[in-house]
Amino acid sequence: MKARHQRLALVGASLAACGVAVALVLNAFNDNLVFFYTPSQVAAGSAPRQSIFRIGGLVEEGSVKRLADGLTVSFVITDKVQKVPVHYQGTLPDLFKEGKGAVAQGRLGEGALFLAQEVLAKHDENYMPAEAAHALEQGRAPASLKGAP
Predict the structure, then answer these.
(1) Phi, psi at residue 120, to the nearest 5°?
(2) Quick one: CA dihedral 74, 119, 84, 139, positive or negative?
(3) pLDDT exceeds cutoff 90 at 110
(4) Rounded alpha-carbon distances, angstroms, from residue 79 to 1, 88, 128, 133, 141
(5) CA 121, CA 29: separation in Å to the nearest integer?
(6) Dihedral pair phi/psi, residue 137, rounded to 5°
(7) Nearest to 60 by CA among 82, 39, 75, 81
(8) Three-state DSSP class for 36?
(9) Predicted TM-score of the model (pTM)
C-alpha cells in the first residue's frame, strides 16, 4: 500500500471515529433531555404522552391526599389557570407543602393524570423555573392583561 493510500485510510478512519463519537454524545444528550411544561400546556395537549417531562407550579391548597401506606401521595399542581392531578409513590421533600411551588418529573398516565417519579420542592424564592414563574404571573393577571406583553 502506498503512503498516499495509507494517509487516506487514516483520515477516513479518523472521520468515522469522530462520527461515532458525535453520535454517541448526541444519543446520551437526547436520553437525558427533560422538558418542562406548565399545567396549561399539559391541559392543551402540548406535553408528550409517552416520554418523561417535568411539570411545575403551585401545589393546590387542600389537594394533598396520603394513602395508608405512607408513601403514596396524590395532589394537584396548578398554574392558577389549569390544574393537573399528580400521583407519586415515594418520600416527599421536607419543604413540600400546599400552596408552595413544586416540580414533578414523570409521564402522563390515563387521562390527564401525571405519574411522578420524582418531586422537587421550592426551597427559596429564586427556585421556580422561569416558565413556571411566567405562567403563574399570567394566571394572576387580570383577563384584560393576559395577552399583553
Answers:
(1) -115, 140
(2) positive
(3) no
(4) 69, 19, 12, 9, 12
(5) 25
(6) -65, -40
(7) 75
(8) strand
(9) 0.66
